[in-house]
Design goal:
24 strands, alpha+beta, 676 residues, seven-stranded antiparallel beta sheet
Length: 676
Amino acid sequence: MNRMTILCMDDEINILITLRSQLMRCFPDYAIEIAESGEEALTLVEELLSNGIEIPLVIADQIMPNMQGEQFLIELHARHPQILKVMLTGQASAEAIANVVNHGSLYRFISKPWSEVDLKLTVTEALRCYKQEQKIAQQQVSLQQANSQLESLNANLENLVLQRNNQVYSLLNNIPHIAWLKDHEGRFLVVNESFSQACGYDISQLVGLTDLDIWEQDVAESYRSDDFEVMRSGKQKRVEEKLITADGNCQWIETIKTPVFGDRNKPIGTAGIAIDISDRKQTELTLQSLIEGTASVTGADFFVCLAEKIAIALDVSHICINKKVGESLETLAVYYDQQFQPNATYEISNTPCSEVIKQGIYYCPKNVQDYFPQDEFLSQNESESYMGLALKNEFNETIGVLNILSRKSIANPERAEILLKFFAARAGAELERLQTLENLQQLNSTLEKRVQERTQALQESRNMLQLVLDTIPQRVFWKDRQSRFLGCSPAFANDYQLTDEQIIGKTDFELPWNDWANLYRADDARIIETKTPKLGYEELTRNLNGDQIWIRNSKIPLSNSQGEVIGVLGCYEDISDRKRAEIALGESNERLRATFDQAAVGICQNSLDGRYMQINQRFCDIMGYSETELLVKSFAELTHPDDLAKDDEKARLLVKGELQSFTMEKRYIRKDGEIV
């Protein structure tokens, strides 16, 4: 069979997809069609209707290209007035809404952004209203047939009613609702048996009476006012109102009054029918009460509150809200015989809840124990009937069960199902929210533990770094991109008898070494800009006493975890003592060299193999060789052969350490061959 179809129209595809998803989730028995323009929607409506598919409801946006939402709804109403129309928009003007209300019979208006709960309530009521309208339309066929028969004789309505009273009476009695005919003065001409039972009068007593003779004055005046309004306007009127019957019972009825016309299309009376809507109204009132009672409650308190209120509203002995945990159910709230019971965990198998998990909804009107003999809880509580609905998450996965048990048949299963379906959606959302919070708490706990571990490790690392900074003799400092000090080692601060607080946040221009601030600032800027370290360079500066000191300095770019240069890191050490030693050594070497070069005697330095390494000018003069010529020779080449053995032996003992020095006379052979 073709399913009834709900049509949604909007020019934003994301909104259409969201609407369709929510409607499909809330109304699985209906097909959901979408259209992105008024023209497309009208074509789709005609196509669906021509294929025998019934369309009870259309939801349309107002702001649309080409055909606006109000134009579409008015055109739709002109073609198919039986289709209910809902406008969903955040930009519709009051004029546009009024236009649709006046010319398109707008059913409801929902503002964007909408609540899924509001959408579900509106659509549920619209579908119920549509079905009720269909029933009323079918029931009015009989009344319209009666009116068509009366129209041929309505030149004199009173005479016509009197003459055809039996026929009309028979017709009205076939209508399963309160029905009547009145003349233009509001006197009853014909009533049916249902009317007679409601007011406590015999049918024969009612003819000729008015509402003032039957009902309380304020009620009667309201009825008469409606009659006169209908005859004056010539239009049908529909109103929901309370009726106190003769036996004191209160009913909610939907009254439909229609003008009856005589010659020249002049109203000569009214025809009315009152449909008992007590069940529907009671469902609405109960639902409203439950919504108000649970609106401000969340978390575990929500399930407790909901269980109590549903049990009272449906007059059942037992209601339970459960969370699915693997193959078991864990109760969140158990309301049993007007009091709460401790939460428990039980297996799903062999219980009615197993059918709920499979089917999504399960209803057993009687003998539920016979169907689940292994469920001890059913027998312990003498359960007769059962109804349960699955609680779903946003992925349509079953995450729990909402169920009711009763020791008798559930009084109004249709109303019970409506209430459970509505609050199953709310309970599912709340349960999913709680599970999300639990997951977040677990995640937060894990993250907190990791943070503590990392904080401890970082603290240990910082302590170690601080220990290093406190211990190493080198001075360490770091600055930001504007050359403001971010930190330094204790040795750095102690050099100038300052504290960290007196240094951090300041530049070199604000500190005792400001004479060199321009130089330091230029170095910092160049290192930051080029991202290139400057290592092992020597600088001259002043200490706290104003004395010049030498330091060996290194600076590198300071980067963050993203590799961005955020400043400069530097370290230096005082090399003044070494520098002074180097200067003194240089001066000593210069004096030694002068003595070596200017000595009146020949001086030379030989390697262990006897070759000349260094000679002075006097030695060159004695030997008759130039310095260049001698540096490629050894002393053995220049020593007289007869003196060589003695010289070698002395040199050997000297190298072995057996002699600290020796003096000897020996013969050298000059370059010109002479002996010296």
